[in-house]
Amino acid sequence: MRIVVKVGTTTLAHKTGHLNIRHMEELCKVLSDIKNAGDEVILVSSGAIGMGMGKLQLKERPKTLPGKQACAAVGQCELMYTYDKCFSEYNHTIAQILLTGGDINDPVRRQNFINTMEHLLEMQVLPIINENDTVSTDEIVIGDNDTLAAIVATAAGADLLILLSDIDGLYSADPRKDKNAVLIDRVTELTPEIMALGGESASGMGTGGMATKLNAAKIATESGCDMIIANGSHPSILYSIMDGDGVGTRFVSGK
Question: Which of 16, 17, 92, 194 has CB atoms 3.0–4.6 Å from 87's, for a disulfide?
Fold first, then answer.
């Protein structure tokens, strides 16, 4: 099975912006084990801007594009250094791929990206993908890593896209505001009612919210790839997902 796993800033970093070492080490251990079992893994990782904030001791996310780019430039170094260190402990080689909207929208550049990924996977390398926040502008920005992960899953012909977030899945209402909200375990059609359940990000660290996840589900399922939203506070939840347990919310592609 070929899977794409997306992890958000809230999974990788504390509210201070500094690295959540326990979560990151556990994530790398679980993904290494999944690879050892014979599955192909592509990781879409947020966290560069958040870690840059921590490194630069900023208390809130920059609001200007140059400020975000500066944070990303600082944070991406720490992010990839830590991934390389953690995955090396389990004898896995990683590769960094930074994308902009132009890499996805231009047919030639998109095919080059696909070719590179296929070759990396053939060599048993684990690609780690992020948007190139350091150089992206309003004209070429993808915008959020939920959408990026869905685009990557589509381009890679993945069987499953897993979005690890700070919420258990899609609820009938915002569980932070409505105590009667119930988890929806399976979505077979993205109706207007389902799409209307999208909301804003509750975290000041990341850029995503349920709306971006539902948009990602639309992109993925239309290409024949199932998608799961699950809580990434304990990365070992990936074992349950790979075992086929009913975890989070599964969006069924109908392939």
Answer: 92
